[in-house]
């Protein structure tokens, strides 16, 4: 089975249906402790460097060049110039259904066409299980760290549907203190222990914005996928994303919001608007290189928790 690198959200069900295994190159970065020599965003610079040096090996690469990550367009081209067969995938900013459907057909052609349509329903069932895990965490029956590790992996389902299903089944319910219910919006933190640190400091993350996108979209054919993935909020106008966030934050009864931003990421520019439009106490954190959560950020999280305790 060919291993297909993806740089952001690409419908994993389509890759599996084409007889290949998706591999999200971002998911190895937080634990990598890599420090690239030439970068804007550490996320894209690290996977680009690892691909070129063959520290990550893939049979081909899908670069999401239009959608949630602008830096990937250039670093993806650099990876492609090293000889990796590469396809550039674009989401429509205006939600044009026909355009996205044509993009999915082009992607299917790049991958050799759909060969295993039966896996589409299996993935649909796995995503339903992911939605149940999200609800359990919200009810305080699953730690935010355990839930996050599974939810973030829905971007590629670890390239192994049977193994991923076993990992979901292995999770055990437990009672979690949810006094401070926090939503984590923006891109996922580059620090591998961020959720554990937040939980230790008395902040229970009940919503991870981007991983939630991984479990709420799907489809059993290309037309269904196009219709569903047109709602991928990171590729839509900011106003649509904010409307979606307001609904989800109310549903989860959050007390506060943490907005994680990555150094040299265009999403940093959204912070001012999010602060204006979301009526919650909001802490903005900016990260750069992977590793443990820095002490300075731990102190800011602790001060944020103390502020919430006083409200």
Main attributes of the structure:
single chain, about 300 residues, alpha/beta, Rossmann fold, four-stranded parallel beta sheet
Give a verbal description of the structure.
The protein is α/β, with parallel strands linked by helices and 311 residues long. The chain has two domains: 3-110, 3-Layer(aba) Sandwich (Rossmann fold); 119-310, Rossmann fold. It has helices at 12-17, 42-52, 71-81, 97-110, 119-138, 144-152, 161-169, 194-200, 209-216, 222-229, 238-251, 271-277, 295-310, and strands spanning 3-6, 21-24, 60-66, 86-90, 181-186, 204-208, 256-262, 282-287. A four-stranded parallel β-sheet has the order 2-1-3-4, sandwiched between helices. Strands 6-5-7-8 form a four-stranded parallel β-sheet. Helix 2 (42-52) packs parallel to helix 3 and helix 5 (119-138) runs antiparallel to helix 9 (209-216). The longest helix has 20 residues, at 119-138. The radius of gyration is 19 Å and the shape is globular. The N and C termini lie far apart (54 Å).
């Amino acid at each position: 089975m060919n291993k297909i690198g993806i740089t952001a959200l690409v419908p994993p069900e389509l890759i599996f249906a084409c007889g290949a295994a998706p591999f999200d190159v971002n998911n190895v970065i937080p634990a990598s402790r890599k420090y690239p020599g030439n970068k804007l965003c550490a996320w894209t610079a690290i996977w680009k460097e690892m691909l070129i040096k063959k520290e990550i090996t893939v049979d081909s690469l899908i670069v999401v060049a239009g959608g949630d990550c602008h830096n990937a367009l250039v670093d993806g081209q650099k990876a492609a110039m090293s000889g990796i067969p590469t396809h550039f995938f674009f989401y429509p900013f205006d939600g044009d259904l026909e355009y996205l459907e044509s993009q999915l057909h082009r992607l299917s052609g790049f991958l050799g066409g759909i060969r295993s349509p039966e896996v589409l329903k299996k993935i649909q069932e796995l995503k339903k299980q992911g939605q149940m895990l999200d609800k359990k965490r919200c009810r305080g029956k699953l730690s935010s760290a355990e839930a996050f590790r599974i939810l973030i992996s829905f971007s590629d389902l670890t390239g192994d549907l049977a193994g991923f299903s076993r990992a979901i089944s292995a999770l055990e319910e437990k009672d979690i203190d949810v006094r401070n219910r926090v939503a984590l919006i923006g891109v996922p933190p580059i620090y591998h222990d961020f959720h554990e640190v937040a939980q230790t400091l008395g902040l229970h993350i009940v919503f991870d914005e981007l991983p939630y996108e991984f479990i709420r979209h799907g489809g059993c054919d290309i037309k269904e996928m196009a219709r569903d993935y047109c709602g991928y909020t990171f590729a839509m106008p900011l106003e649509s994303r904010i409307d979606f966030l307001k609904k989800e934050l109310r549903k989860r009864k959050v007390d506060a919001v943490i907005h994680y931003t990555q150094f040299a990421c265009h999403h940093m520019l959204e912070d001012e608007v999010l602060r204006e439009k979301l009526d919650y106490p909001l802490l903005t954190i900016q990260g750069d290189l992977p590793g443990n959560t820095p002490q300075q950020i731990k102190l800011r999280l602790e001060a944020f928790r103390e502020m919430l305790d006083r409200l």
